[in-house]
Design a protein that fits this description.
Elements: E1 4-13, H1 26-42, E2 49-51, H2 53-59, E3 70-78, E4 83-87
Parallel strand pairs: 2-4
Antiparallel strand pairs: 1-3, 3-4
Length: about 90
């Protein structure tokens, strides 16, 4: 496995970003927003951001309509350009 290049903890407020979307799309849009946010801040393409299984389960835990309002994640960027995201 590659060496760790950057490691950061982010607290994201998802409620503000999901207000305009229909309820049945909120969990899906939350995962897309998380992936795009981390690709922008870690300077990698969105395809290189890998969400942990527990992060995905938390986003979808209350169904598609009720995504969590806040999310705290730990992002680790490796030398090969892959970003792994897990719960902080």
């Amino acid at each position: 496995m590659a060496n760790i290049q950057v490691e950061r903890i982010y607290s994201l407020r998802l409620r503000q970003k999901l207000v305009g979307y229909p309820r049945w799309l909120r969990a899906k849009k939350a995962s897309i927003y998380l992936r795009n946010f981390l690709s922008r801040h870690m300077k990698v393409p969105p395809e290189n951001v890998k969400l942990d299984e527990k992060v995905n389960e938390l986003l979808w835990s209350r169904g598609a309509k009720w995504a969590p309002a806040k999310l705290r994640v730990r992002a680790v960027k490796f030398d090969d350009g892959i970003v792994e995201v897990e719960l902080a």
